[in-house]
Amino acid sequence: MSPSDSQPNAGPGNNASENHATVEEVKAIISKAQGGAADPIFTGIMIVSSLSENFTISGDTLRQALADSHIAPAEPWASILSGVRDISKIENKVVVARAQQLETDVRGTRIRLQEVITFEFTNDSSLPRISNIQGVAAHKVIWLNIQQLELIQDQQQKVLRVMTAGGSRDFALPQASA
Predict the structure, then answer these.
(1) Phi (first) and psi of residue 52, to 5 degrees
(2) pTM listed for this prediction
(3) b/e map of 98-115 (b: 16 or more CB within 10 Å)?
(4) Which of 73, 91, 133, 177 is deepest in the core (most CB within 10 A)?
(5) In a structure prediction context, what are the per-residue pLDDT tens digits for the chain, which is 178 residues long?
(6) Does residue 129 fall inside a structural domain?
(7) What is the largest CA-CA distance in the chain?
(8) Do the domain assignments include residue 177?
(9) Are the CB atoms for 62 and 83 separated by under 8 Å?
(10) Residue 178 in domain
(11) Which domain holds residue 9?
(12) What is the SS3 assignment for 51?
């Protein structure tokens, strides 16, 4: 990783070899990612999973594709998405560039998103994993940096496991409707 990789101005969209997604391409990715998913977290993870290497989506393109797909994210997801400038994926590294830092509440937990969020995305098992997360923290008693997110299967239920230096916590995702 070069020094410029961690700089906000050297983030998504500044590499001439990246593919810049169109609204139609993003709509196709959204349609594929939805495949029975009822939860926005699972759908979001599946969207990232569907991105090819060296791919960039501008925030405006993402929001237009969601609108065209008749997806109106509820809070806090609407606020989170409104500040996204662009998302890029280079090999297994994903960079989310935001217009500004955001602090919001997700299911009773305060979450802080920095202007630049990076993570590695791997799908080497049956369910994807997001690791080496930088720029995301959760607050209960103190602020804890979120280090890893992992989808796991607990019997017939999909669960999001959130890992921090203070331990891990599992969140059951809603079941897909039949």
Answers:
(1) -80, 170
(2) 0.77
(3) beeebeeeeeeeebbbbb
(4) 133
(5) 333 333 333 344 444 446 788 899 888 888 877 765 556 677 777 777 777 778 889 999 999 998 998 888 888 888 889 999 999 999 889 999 999 999 998 878 899 999 999 999 887 766 778 899 999 999 878 898 999 888 887 777 778 888 998 888 888 877 655 4
(6) yes
(7) 48
(8) no
(9) no
(10) no
(11) 3-172
(12) coil
